[in-house]
Design a protein that fits this description.
Layout (H helix, E strand, L loop, with lengths): L14 H16 L7 E3 L7 H5 L7 H4 L1 E5 L5 H7 L3 E4 L25 E3 L5 E3 H6 L13
Parallel strand pairs: 1-2, 2-3
Antiparallel strand pairs: 4-5
Length: 143
């Protein structure tokens, strides 16, 4: 066991899944009188501007949030950042976005790219993979 207050959560597949996992605890803790300060690190996603919006006006909520900069703030967040305290940890978090790698697709093995059937028509790897498995021959004779 690491630390009792640390959670590693699989948010699921899809961009909105992680947003929901951050949004609800954020709202809960901002309404908790025992929560004195919230450090928010979502600098590269404009979606979080909607989350911070209600707290960006003048008042006690505004003083309780610090935004962590890493990669440059997304445009909508950059406009909100002036309403909150900001900080960065240059030796802890990267200051550039991670570039997405191009999609990788493996071609089928050479022997399966195009198979010829008995009547001479060709079939693809996909149609061959989708075909049902052949039934075992149960009519074998014993010697």
């Amino acid at each position: 066991m690491g630390h009792a207050l640390v959670n590693i959560i699989d948010a699921g597949i899809g961009k909105e899944c992680s947003y929901a996992k951050i949004r609800e605890p954020f709202r809960i803790y901002m309404g908790d009188v025992h929560c004195k300060h919230l450090i928010f690190g979502g600098s590269s996603d404009n979606g979080y501007a909607r989350l911070l919006g209600p707290y960006s006006g003048k008042g006690a909520f505004r003083e309780c949030i610090t935004m962590i900069g890493g990669p440059p703030f997304a445009p909508e967040l950059a406009r909100r950042a002036s309403n909150f305290k900001t900080t960065s940890f240059v030796n802890l978090f990267r200051n550039t976005k991670i570039e997405a790698l191009p999609a990788f697709s493996m071609p089928p093995p050479p022997g399966l790219r195009s198979l010829k059937t008995v009547n001479g028509s060709s079939i693809s790897y996909a149609s061959q993979a989708a075909a049902p498995a052949p039934m075992p021959d149960t009519q074998r004779t014993r010697r």
